[in-house]
Design a protein that fits this description.
317 residues, seven-stranded mixed beta sheet, transferase, alpha/beta, 2 domains, Rossmann fold
């Protein structure tokens, strides 16, 4: 099939590669404009753009597709490009721009979205983060037909994926990206055979995965250890859980909920041992931190971190 692909981050690049490897023709890729990144804040192409350029696929980077938005001329040019590009279907994965009805109706077979949750649970921007944060035992990929709503369209294919106890957003993202690539190839195979099923989303069980803010990653040690452990995994690798200690913000990358020994105020460092890690009292239970980071430093195992930054007897503010 001829596919216009719209996506931006690595999650989408994995799907684009799967479609390319499956032999589909991709006459055009849409992706977000280059953004400043890294310490030097140099403009950096998205993973999707990097893949497209490496495989000589034309790329467009409109800042908006809304004809009634802030950039109507840009949107008008993008519409004209889509209409002039022969294609059968548009595949969308973590694109980051709103697709108005005027775009959704251009492809003959509409727009198929690779969504990282078991819809209708976790509609919205951050389904992987929110599933881990909420303590869900499973998630998955839904291939859906896009409509004007926020992830409200009919479900075409669904496959579940267990969330392992040690999964972070980073590790779960990688597994889901591979699953999404496999499923969109299968969805297009069925579409070519006019055999792609379609099921309306149920009205019950709708939840929304709000966009992640950096402020959310601040740890409140008055909360139960199990809640904080999930937050740490959910915010790894972005934005990274943190808490103030001795006047600086420490990034806290890996931790396990453990039983607290004795009575300690929340935030108190119960012990800081190279072998056992840094154990901190919580509202209930305690957290054993095994990977930490100082501002400007590297992520380090607790044993290495404590050599230069002893924490015994301290307290998180």
């Amino acid at each position: 099939m001829k596919i216009i692909f719209a996506g931006t981050p690595e999650f989408a690049a994995v799907a684009l590669k799967a479609l390319h490897d499956a032999g589909h023709q991709i006459p055009l890729v849409l992706t977000q404009p280059d953004r400043p990144a890294g310490r030097g804040m140099q403009l950096q192409a998205s993973p999707v753009k990097q893949f497209a350029q490496a495989h000589q696929i034309p790329v467009a980077q409109p800042v908006s597709l809304r004809l009634d938005g802030k950039y109507p001329e840009v949107a008008k040019e993008a519409h004209a490009l889509l209409q002039a590009t022969p294609h059968d279907v548009m595949v969308v994965a973590a694109y980051g721009l709103i697709l108005p009805l005027s775009v959704l109706t251009i492809p003959p077979h509409g727009c198929l979205n690779i969504h990282g949750s078991l819809l209708p649970r976790w509609r919205g921007a951050a389904p992987i983060h929110r599933a881990i944060e909420a303590g869900d035992s499973e998630t998955g990929i839904t291939i859906m037909q896009m409509d004007q709503g926020l992830d409200t369209g009919p479900m075409l294919l669904i496959e579940k994926l267990a969330i392992d106890a040690g999964d972070s957003t980073g590790t779960l993202h990688d597994k889901m990206a591979q699953l999404g690539g496999k499923m969109i190839v299968e969805a297009l195979r069925l579409l070519e055979q006019n055999a792609l099923p379609s099921t309306p989303q149920p009205e019950a069980g709708v939840t929304y995965a709000a966009k992640i803010s950096k402020e959310e990653a601040a740890l409140d040690f008055s909360l139960p250890a199990e809640v904080l452990e999930r937050k740490i995994r959910a915010f790894n690798p972005f934005p990274g859980a943190f808490a103030p200690f001795a006047g600086i913000h420490l990034k806290l990358w890996q931790a396990q909920a453990v039983s607290a020994v004795g009575t300690h105020a929340a935030g108190t460092v119960i012990s800081a041992d190279p072998h056992d890690g840094v154990i901190v009292a919580c509202g209930s239970g305690a957290l054993r931190f095994t990977e930490l980071q100082k501002p400007g430093g590297k992520r380090l195992p607790a044993a290495e971190f404590l050599k230069a930054f002893p924490m015994q007897g301290g307290r998180f503010d």
